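F.,

This is the one I mentioned.
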């Protein structure tokens, strides 16, 4: 079992909701909207989201009018995320005055004249979930938001795609693709070394003795999807771009930036190729840049839409 998600991680996921909203590739999103409308039928849309976090993609699809008749299953390895998603969806429904109930299984039901959606959330490891789900479970839409760069594509992607019904869609978003940019520079040589070493930790990361992700997942997906027999409809960049406006950073995005810098610190703390004192001074300076409303952060990412 994994350790519970710390409260700071839950806040990080909430803090990046607005950033994700403006970063998602609009062309890929529009193709998804059209594809789902073309698939419209009397049967509920069957959706599986892996790594659903605190449910922000569910909110986004509801707000976009893409879930009118749907059976939505969201899984995440962190029980704390599932609890957070449950609470957010309750708050979401209350804020919009959407009638909702919870059935005996714990699923949340949104029911209005224009909407009939059943949402089931479960704390589950993706490998355990796939092992108990028969192939060709016949999902109509497979969603993975900001999560495929945390898993081994070669081992997982074919199995995930095999759960789609013929013609079923996949929507894979915010897949990291090899660029972490922090401005203004502190020491160009040190900045470049830290970026290189940080990306290397993504390439060598393991979880439960399995390879876990890559710093170039975005570009790798083109080949991996083709190998798995998938067909692409649309793809495009979905870069995170965070910068201070006249009133500072939007929403809680200063916290988001502090979290990113802390993540780099944790990943590289004690690294043999980094002088400890220089690295810690670099980390402290990046935090000060955030407090001074100076730091600009860019992460290159890619979105994909396609079908089987």
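My design for it:
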């Amino acid at each position: 079992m994994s350790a519970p998600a710390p409260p700071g991680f839950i806040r990080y996921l909430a803090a990046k909701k607005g950033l994700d909203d403006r970063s998602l590739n609009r062309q890929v999103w529009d193709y998804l909207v059209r594809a789902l409308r073309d698939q419209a039928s009397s049967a509920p849309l069957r959706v599986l989201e892996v790594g659903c976090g605190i449910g922000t993609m569910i909110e986004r699809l509801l707000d976009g009018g893409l879930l009118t008749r749907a059976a939505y299953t969201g899984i995440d390895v962190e029980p704390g995320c599932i609890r957070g998603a449950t609470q957010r969806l309750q708050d979401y429904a209350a804020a919009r005055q959407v009638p909702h109930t919870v059935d005996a299984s714990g699923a949340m039901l949104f029911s209005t004249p224009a909407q009939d959606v059943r949402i089931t959330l479960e704390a589950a490891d993706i490998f355990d979930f796939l092992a108990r789900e028969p192939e060709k479970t016949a999902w109509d839409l497979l969603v993975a938001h900001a999560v495929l760069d945390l898993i081994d594509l070669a081992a997982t992607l074919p199995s995930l795609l095999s759960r789609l019904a013929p013609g079923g869609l996949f929507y894979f978003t915010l897949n990291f693709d090899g660029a972490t940019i922090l401005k203004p520079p502190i020491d160009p040589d040190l900045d470049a070394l830290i970026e290189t070493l940080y990306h290397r930790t993504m390439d060598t990361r393991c979880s439960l003795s399995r390879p876990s992700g890559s710093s170039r997942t975005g570009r790798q997906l083109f080949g991996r999807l083709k190998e798995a027999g998938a067909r692409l409809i649309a793809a495009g960049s979905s870069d995170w771009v965070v910068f201070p406006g006249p009133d500072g950073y939007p929403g809680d995005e200063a916290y988001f930036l502090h979290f990113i810098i802390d993540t780099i610190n944790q990943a590289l703390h004690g690294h043999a190729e980094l002088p400890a004192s220089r690295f810690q001074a670099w980390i402290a300076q990046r935090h000060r840049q955030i407090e001074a409303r100076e730091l600009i952060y860019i992460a290159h990412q890619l979105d994909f839409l396609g079908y089987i």
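DSSP finds eleven helices and twelve strands in the chain.

Talk soon.
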